[in-house]
Queue: 2 jobs
Job 1
Amino acid sequence: QVQLVESGGGLVPPGGSLKLSCAASGNIFSITAMAWYRQAPGNERELVARITDNNATTYAVSAKGRFAISRDDAKKTVYLQMNSLKPEDTATYYCNVDLLLDPVGVLDAWGQGTLVTVSS
């Protein structure tokens, strides 16, 4: 089995910062792309940021210049540093990992979600 454990969510005032983490564990051979999505109440889940196995990054327009995605392959962990947070960033954030299983197989895995609330 593969598990994704997220942490780092919480309540932060507008303009504040948070850093989310998502650690993968289990029968993982290698990890290709890692990403963060978010879903606000009443909205569809949307991509926030994505990083490939050669560290190429993609950001949603709303995240560019404020958020930074990074990964530590030794720890099988992806991070999302969020700065200058706005109330509209309030959502449940999910990590998503594309990985190769040991010994065989592929998996598109999702974390359980961590709530980020931006409010004064």
Job 2
Amino acid sequence: QVQLQESGPGLVKPSQTLSLTCTVSGGSITTNYYYWSWLRQPPGEGLEWIGYIGYSGSTYYGPSLKSRTSISRDTSKNQFTLQLSSVTPEDTAVYYCARDDRGFAQYDYWGQGTQVTVSS
């Protein structure tokens, strides 16, 4: 059974960089053909896809946040990390990590989600 768990600070100040880590157990992040994604849901809004890092280490980001987003991984720890720079209160959301089967937005495993609030 694959499990994903997000971790990171729940409060970030404006203009700082938000950093979240997703720890994966029960499966390797280098296994073909899975893509390890970050998504978020601002209060009162729908789910927004942020980007992913693939089994080979390739990355792809959504257009709305692309200029501020970086996703990396540590294969020795079976973790992948989201960094979102220059945050504003509009980045306040519940952030999720998820596994995407073959990169077609077919998410089969999710983390429980973590609330991140951007406030001074």
